[in-house]
Specification:
Elements lengths: L2 E5 L2 E6 L2 E6 L10 H16 L5 E6 L10 H8 L3 H8 L3 H7 L5 E5 L2 E3 L1 H4 L6 E5 L3 E3 L13 H9 L1 H9 L4 E2 H7 L4 E3 L4 H13 L3 H11 L2 H19 L2 H11 L11
Parallel strand pairs: 3-4, 4-5, 5-7, 6-8, 7-10
Antiparallel strand pairs: 1-2, 2-3, 8-9
Length: 264
C-alpha cells in the first residue's frame, strides 16, 4: 500500500521501497522556498535513516523541473530582512541532506532546471532528462556563487572549461548535451521521462540494499563535499548581501540587463 503526503508544495509518496518527492508549485515554475527546501531535505534524510527505503526519486509537476530558488527569498536577505537572513545563515536544508545522503537518489528532469535544479543533480546517482530539457546555473548572472559543492563536483564531471561557461556565462545545456557530457545517464522523449526514471528507481530497489548503500558511500567523499559546501556558503552568503546582488535582483525584476560598472 502506498503512503502519500504533502508539505509546502512537496508531494511525497512511498511505494515499493521508493520514496517519490514531487516539486508541486507549477504556478511559480516550481521555484523553491525555504519551506520546500526543508521538506525535500527531510525526505532525503528520512530515506538515509530508514533502510526500508531503497531509493529516492525526485521529479517536478508542471512544465519545468524547477526555476531554482525563489528570488523573493534572496531579495529579502539582500534588503536586510533579519528573519530571512537568519534562515539562510543556517544553511540550505536540502543541500545539507544531499551532502550526507546514504540512500541512492534518482532524478527525472523536464523543461527548465535552473540553479539548484542543476546542482542537486550532482548528488543524484541516476539522472534522466527530457531531450528538450534546458539546464542552467546562472549564479554569476545574479552576482552570487555556486553552491551544493557544485564548484567541486561540476568541473570533476564535465571539465573546468564547460563548468566555467555554465557558472560564469550562464550558458544553457540541453538534455541531449547533458547526457553526452555525463550530467545525465540518458536523454529521453519528454513523454517517456517519468516511466524511464521510475524503472531506474525500481532497478535500484531490486538490488541488495546494504550493498547499494555501501557502494554509494565508497563512491563519494562526504567530508570533502561538506567542506566545499561550507566554503561556498561563506562566499554565497556574503554575495547575497552585496551591492552587486542588489543590482542583479533589481535588473531581474525590471527585465533589463544588470549594470555592474558603478558597483564597487
Amino acid at each position: 500500500m502506498a503512503e502519500r503526503g504533502m508539505t509546502d508544495h512537496i508531494l511525497s509518496e512511498l511505494s515499493d521501497g521508493i520514496l517519490t518527492l514531487t516539486i508541486n508549485r507549477p504556478e511559480k515554475k516550481n521555484a523553491l522556498t525555504r519551506a520546500m527546501y526543508q521538506a525535500l531535505g527531510d525526505g532525503v534524510d528520512r530515506a538515509s535513516n530508514d533502510p526500508s527505503i531503497r531509493c529516492v526519486l525526485i521529479q517536478g509537476n508542471g512544465d519545468m523541473f524547477t526555476a531554482g530558488n525563489d528570488l523573493g527569498d534572496f531579495a529579502a536577505v539582500n534588503s536586510g530582512d533579519a528573519g530571512a537572513n537568519d534562515a539562510r545563515s543556517e544553511g540550505n536544508p536540502l543541500l545539507i541532506a544531499l551532502g550526507r545522503a546514504k540512500a541512492p537518489i534518482v532524478a527525472a528532469v523536464h523543461g527548465r532546471a535552473v540553479g539548484v535544479g542543476v546542482t542537486m543533480l550532482l548528488h543524484c546517482d541516476l539522472v534522466y532528462v527530457a531531450e528538450d530539457a534546458l539546464l542552467t546555473t546562472p549564479f554569476v548572472n545574479l552576482a552570487l556563487a555556486p553552491e551544493a559543492a557544485s564548484s567541486l563536483l561540476l568541473p570533476a564531471r564535465i571539465g573546468h572549461a564547460r563548468a566555467f561557461s555554465m557558472f560564469v556565462l550562464g550558458e544553457a545545456v540541453d538534455g541531449k548535451t547533458a547526457a553526452a557530457w555525463g550530467l545525465a545517464n540518458a536523454a529521453v522523449p519528454a513523454a517517456e521521462l517519468r516511466e524511464r526514471a521510475r524503472k531506474g528507481a525500481e532497478a535500484i530497489a531490486a538490488r541488495a540494499p546494504a550493498s547499494v548503500r555501501g557502494t554509494k558511500a565508497l563512491m563519494l567523499d562526504a567530508p570533502a563535499i561538506q567542506e566545499q559546501m561550507r566554503k561556498e556558503n561563506a562566499i554565497f552568503s556574503a554575495q547575497l548581501k552585496s551591492a552587486e546582488a542588489k543590482e542583479a535582483f533589481a535588473a531581474f525584476a525590471e527585465k533589463r540587463a544588470p549594470d555592474f560598472s558603478k558597483v564597487g
